[in-house]
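Lay summary. Proteins are chains of building blocks that fold into shapes, and those shapes determine what they do. In this project we predict the shape from the chain. Here is one chain we studied, written as its sequence of building blocks.
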Amino acid sequence: KQWYQRRVALTAGVKKHCNEFEKCHLIVAGGYDSRVVENVTHHLELEQFSQELEIHDNTTFLRSISDETKLYLLRNCTALLYTPSNEHFGIVPVESMYCSMPVVAVNSGGPLETVQDHVTGFLCDPRPEKFGEAMLKFIEQSELKGRMGGAGKKRVQDLFSFEAFTEKLHSTVMELS
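And here is the predicted shape, written in a compact code that computers can read:
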């Protein structure tokens, strides 16, 4: 429940730090099954939480998006915000970097391996103000998106592509023979 609320709270962090908050828009996208009570409850809590934080007008909730919509969002956003703490490897940051989008993620779990801090995005303490500070950098320094996005795509190709895995497996097998 906390990471769901963190998704919305981090936008409030930008609101506190930025006079140009009106230019920001948070899209919360993810899987949703109306038959799962927890999904319905979390969605309602997020809607209410965004109203309490007075950011509802700058927030859109998209549930159970298609692959086509996901790709559109990844190719057209400013940055991907990845909020789960202690998450496993996590493919979402890698997908984002492959689409040349920087990632702002919690500095624990899988993002420690996939996101290169200050190169392909930012790794932050799991506090709204830290996410807000990272997001503000994209507002103040428009060149960051292109620079970090390009570095992210290269990182995915170098470390996480099929070719990279094939080369690593071949190298390991050769060492063992």
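What the prediction tells us: The two ends are 49 Å apart (CA to CA).
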